[in-house]
Specification:
This protein is α/β, with parallel strands linked by helices. Helices cover about 30% and strands about 20% of the residues. The chain is built from 5 helices and 9 strands. Strands 2-1-4-3-5-8-9 form a 7-stranded mixed sheet, with helices on both faces. The protein has a two-stranded antiparallel ribbon with strand order 6-7. A hairpin with a 6-residue loop joins β1 and β2. α1 crosses α5 and α3 runs parallel beside α4. The longest helix has 17 residues.
């Protein structure tokens, strides 16, 4: 995790490594990966208020060199039977959001035609891939170019996309975008309902 990140927490009781405001969390089925610890807590609170809860919240951190990235987290969520929806909380700086958008494009292609996976892997039962809705926020739309915004990596280096271009990349890949973390609960409730997923907390 991180380096500079709040850590990782499974709200369904499997692990807690780091520091998180526990009363904000509730067991549920939405996975979150975030650069910003504070914005991840606001996202968690929004999901809790909506009655959705969280399965796993991963603090990616906002360092220039991160130990975990959005794609790493999405791969975990894709294989997690407890996760039915995914949320990305990004910000200006780096290229992780564009890399996530590329992963989402491939993911959408895979789940268009669901198929059995792991059927030939010894010791693992066959599982059916299914489409998990994805929502995201990219903070820093109004950040001034080349000015660090809170994190060591929260600035757009020459040649990197800004927050708006990251937003556009994710949206073009089929991610539902929100402009404030308080909206995640309502948006994810609608997405899960539209896709026929279980929207009841544990």
């Amino acid at each position: 995790m991180g380096a500079n990140a709040p850590g990782i927490i499974s709200a369904i009781g499997k692990c807690r490594i780091g520091f998180q405001p526990l009363p904000t969390f509730s067991p549920g089925r939405v996975g979150i990966v975030a650069k910003s610890g504070t914005l991840s807590y606001e996202t968690v609170a929004s999901l809790t208020r909506a009655g959705l809860g969280q399965s796993l919240c991963i603090g990616m951190g906002g360092d220039v060199v991160a130990g975990t990235n959005f794609v790493d987290a999405f791969k975990v969520f894709e294989d997690d039977e407890d996760t039915e929806g995914m949320i990305l909380v990004g910000e200006v700086g780096g290229t992780a959001e564009e890399e996530a958008a590329e992963w989402v494009r491939h993911y959408r292609q895979r789940v268009k035609n669901p198929k059995l996976v792991d059927a030939d892997t010894p010791g693992r039962s066959a599982t059916l891939t299914f489409d998990r809705p994805i929502a995201a926020l990219v903070a820093g739309i109004y950040a001034k170019p080349r000015r660090v915004m809170g994190h060591a990596g929260a600035w757009a280096a020459p040649g990197e996309g800004n927050a708006k271009s990251k937003w556009n990349s994710l949206e073009a890949a089929g991610v539902t975008m929100v402009d404030h973390p308080a909206k995640f609960g309502r948006v994810m409730s609608a997405l899960l309902s539209q896709n026929g997923h279980n929207i009841v907390s544990f």
